[in-house]
Protein backbone atom coordinates (compact mmCIF):
# COMPACT_ATOMS: atom_id res chain seq x y z
CA UNK A 1 0.00 0.00 0.00
CA UNK A 2 1.33 3.43 -0.92
CA UNK A 3 1.63 6.23 1.64
CA UNK A 4 -1.13 8.30 0.04
CA UNK A 5 -3.53 5.35 0.09
CA UNK A 6 -2.63 4.54 3.68
CA UNK A 7 -3.15 8.18 4.61
CA UNK A 8 -6.62 8.23 3.01
CA UNK A 9 -7.61 5.02 4.80
CA UNK A 10 -6.40 6.33 8.16
CA UNK A 11 -8.29 9.57 7.55
CA UNK A 12 -11.55 7.73 6.90
CA UNK A 13 -11.15 5.69 10.10
CA UNK A 14 -10.37 8.83 12.09
CA UNK A 15 -13.42 10.65 10.72
CA UNK A 16 -15.63 7.66 11.57
CA UNK A 17 -14.16 7.40 15.08
CA UNK A 18 -14.57 11.14 15.71
CA UNK A 19 -18.18 11.13 14.56
CA UNK A 20 -18.97 8.08 16.67
CA UNK A 21 -17.44 9.59 19.82
CA UNK A 22 -18.31 13.26 19.31
CA UNK A 23 -14.70 14.41 18.84
CA UNK A 24 -14.01 17.78 17.24
CA UNK A 25 -10.91 17.21 15.16
CA UNK A 26 -9.40 20.67 15.50
CA UNK A 27 -5.80 21.55 14.68
CA UNK A 28 -5.06 21.43 18.41
CA UNK A 29 -6.66 17.99 18.72
CA UNK A 30 -4.41 16.58 15.98
CA UNK A 31 -1.26 17.83 17.70
CA UNK A 32 -2.32 16.94 21.23
CA UNK A 33 -3.40 13.48 20.10
CA UNK A 34 0.07 12.93 18.65
CA UNK A 35 1.55 13.78 22.04
CA UNK A 36 -0.81 11.32 23.70
CA UNK A 37 0.16 8.58 21.26
CA UNK A 38 3.89 9.23 21.72
CA UNK A 39 3.35 8.98 25.48
CA UNK A 40 1.60 5.63 25.05
CA UNK A 41 4.44 4.43 22.80
CA UNK A 42 6.96 5.48 25.44
CA UNK A 43 5.01 3.61 28.12
CA UNK A 44 4.86 0.48 25.94
CA UNK A 45 8.58 0.72 25.22
CA UNK A 46 9.45 1.08 28.90
CA UNK A 47 7.30 -1.92 29.83
CA UNK A 48 8.83 -3.95 27.00
CA UNK A 49 12.39 -3.27 28.12
CA UNK A 50 11.69 -3.84 31.81
CA UNK A 51 11.80 -0.19 32.90
CA UNK A 52 8.09 -0.01 33.84
CA UNK A 53 5.39 -2.35 35.13
CA UNK A 54 4.50 -5.09 32.70
CA UNK A 55 0.98 -5.39 34.20
CA UNK A 56 1.29 -9.17 34.05
CA UNK A 57 1.73 -9.22 30.28
CA UNK A 58 3.91 -11.76 28.53
CA UNK A 59 6.87 -10.73 26.37
CA UNK A 60 4.73 -11.40 23.29
CA UNK A 61 1.94 -9.16 24.60
CA UNK A 62 4.41 -6.42 25.48
CA UNK A 63 5.85 -6.63 21.97
CA UNK A 64 2.38 -6.46 20.46
CA UNK A 65 1.54 -3.39 22.56
CA UNK A 66 4.74 -1.70 21.42
CA UNK A 67 3.99 -2.40 17.75
CA UNK A 68 0.40 -1.22 18.12
CA UNK A 69 1.46 2.04 19.75
CA UNK A 70 4.06 2.62 17.04
CA UNK A 71 1.28 2.18 14.47
CA UNK A 72 -0.85 4.72 16.38
CA UNK A 73 1.97 7.29 16.23
CA UNK A 74 2.43 6.73 12.50
CA UNK A 75 -1.31 7.02 11.89
CA UNK A 76 -1.47 10.29 13.82
CA UNK A 77 1.47 11.68 11.84
CA UNK A 78 -0.34 10.73 8.63
CA UNK A 79 -3.46 12.51 9.88
CA UNK A 80 -1.51 15.66 10.71
CA UNK A 81 0.10 15.63 7.28
CA UNK A 82 -3.32 15.28 5.67
CA UNK A 83 -4.76 18.05 7.83
CA UNK A 84 -2.00 20.50 6.91
CA UNK A 85 -1.62 19.35 3.30
CA UNK A 86 1.93 18.08 3.70
CA UNK A 87 3.27 15.65 1.11
CA UNK A 88 5.22 13.38 3.44
CA UNK A 89 6.96 11.46 0.68
CA UNK A 90 8.32 14.68 -0.83
CA UNK A 91 9.34 16.00 2.57
CA UNK A 92 11.16 12.78 3.51
CA UNK A 93 12.93 12.86 0.16
CA UNK A 94 13.90 16.50 0.68
CA UNK A 95 14.91 16.19 4.35
CA UNK A 96 16.26 12.64 4.69
CA UNK A 97 17.00 11.01 1.37
CA UNK A 98 19.38 13.73 0.21
CA UNK A 99 21.78 12.14 2.71
CA UNK A 100 21.41 8.65 1.26
CA UNK A 101 24.87 7.39 0.27
CA UNK A 102 25.30 7.08 -3.46
CA UNK A 103 26.24 3.67 -4.82
CA UNK A 104 28.35 5.29 -7.54
CA UNK A 105 30.59 6.98 -4.96
CA UNK A 106 30.95 3.91 -2.73
CA UNK A 107 34.32 2.23 -2.46
How would you describe this protein?
This protein is mainly α. The chain has a single domain, classed as Helix Hairpins, CATH 1.10.287. The protein is 69% helix and 0% strand. Helix 1 crosses helix 3 and helix 2 runs antiparallel to helix 3. The longest helix is centred in the middle third of the chain and has 25 residues, at 59-83. The model has no long low-confidence stretch (mean pLDDT 94).
Write a short abstract of this structure.
Helix content is about 70%, strand content about 0%.
Please tag this protein with its features.
107 residues, mainly alpha, Helix Hairpins, 4 helices, 0% strand
The CATH topology label is Helix Hairpins
Kindly state the number of beta strands. 0
Main β-sheet, in a few words?
A: none
> Domains counted in the coordinates: how many?
1
Q: What would CATH call the homologous superfamily?
A: MazG-like
Going by CATH, the architecture would be Orthogonal Bundle
- Individual helix count: 4
* Uncertain residue segments: none
Alpha carbon gap, first and last residue: 34 Å
Shape: flat
Percent of residues in beta strands?
Answer: under 5%
Q: CATH first level: which class? A: Mainly Alpha
* Fraction of helical residues: 55-70%
Order of helix and strand elements from N to C terminus: HHHH
Integer-rounded radius of gyration: 17 Å
Taking all residues together, what is the mean pLDDT? 94
Q: Which class of secondary structure composition applies to the elements?
A: mainly alpha
Amino acid sequence: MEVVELQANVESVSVFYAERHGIDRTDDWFMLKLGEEVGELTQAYLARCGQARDKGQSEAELGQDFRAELADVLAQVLLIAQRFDVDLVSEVERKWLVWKPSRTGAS
